[in-house]
Amino acid sequence: MKAVWINEPGSIEIVDLPMPEPKENEALLRILTCGICGSDVASFTGNQPFTSYPRIPGHEFSARIVSLPADYEGPLAVGDVVTANPYFNCGHCYACKRGHVNCCHENQTMGVQRDGAFCEYVAMPVERIYPGQGLSADQLALIEPFSIGYHALSRCEVKPGDRVLVIGAGPIGLFALISAKSKGAEVHVADLLDGRLEKAKAFGADGVINSGMESLAEYTAAHTEGGFDICVEACGAPETFLSCIDCCAFAGNLILIGNGKRDTTFLHSTLLRKELNVYGSRNSLPEDFRALIDLVASGKVDPLPMVSTVYPFEESLQAFDALVHNDGSLAKVLIRFSE
Fold this sequence. Notes:
Layout: E1 2-8, E2 11-16, E3 26-35, H1 38-45, E4 60-67, E5 81-84, E6 87-88, H2 94-97, E7 108-109, E8 121-125, E9 129-131, H3 137-141, H4 143-153, E10 163-167, H5 171-182, E11 186-191, H6 194-202, E12 207-210, H7 216-223, E13 228-233, H8 238-247, E14 248-256, H9 269-274, E15 277-280, H10 286-297, E16 307-312, H11 316-324, E17 332-336
Parallel strand pairs: 10-11, 10-13, 11-12, 13-14, 14-15, 16-17
Antiparallel strand pairs: 1-2, 3-4, 3-8, 3-17, 4-5, 5-9, 6-7
Helix pairs in contact: 4-5, 4-10
């Protein structure tokens, strides 16, 4: 089979590799569509600290079932179009024992610590595969990135009428926006790029601000009675984390999704004075995948407008290059492996 192969940072090519051989309780999947995550781009550029090399990237995907274990009994059938959970947990660490499998101490995410889905076929444990409920291959490839924002918004109670600020209007921030709106919140979005803010408006943002051109503090004062009930940090930058602290209401909630790479210095007494609840959010849970497949299948939410462009598999390297030089105009980029 053919696969996208990152030999080392900065070195990416399409190579021929042996077909995977399913083990006990594994299905063979033919990849249909795969999304390029920011972490995949970071693996290519060498800015993803958790990636080991060489590596097949990719963990946002849809696939068609080619084969199932001989003794399998369940809802899946050969020919089904499905998606899957790409976070492999150990099952025996303290987090896993308590059911927090997304926080496994030894987590291995496809495309990062183990080979991913940017290839023609993968073998996948059947318990990690979710029926697609008639969704398209492109919709199913968006379920995993959608689940990151959705899981983050599940970290604290979001009530109808809550005022939410999302800082960062990349794909994950936009999925956080959609998730908060689905819970009845009033959502405002801040970013430095007007193109991304236009996307936020299209997905129902109640207000947007270019925080590089306008004062976020003044915007907060004008649109709230004392700060936002929930602030979502979706950039991973020290500056945006500090802005969340400043913009959050007393007794408010701060949710961190952005994966920061720099140290942040702040006076922690501010957290005490405002009695803020600070939540980290990592990966997502099986129930997040199932809930989102149900939500999209219901017709209430369609993530497809998130897609900026779709490349054929043969042009995967051009797709990575486009995202490396993304000026903010690209949201989700998909790779079409097969129909």
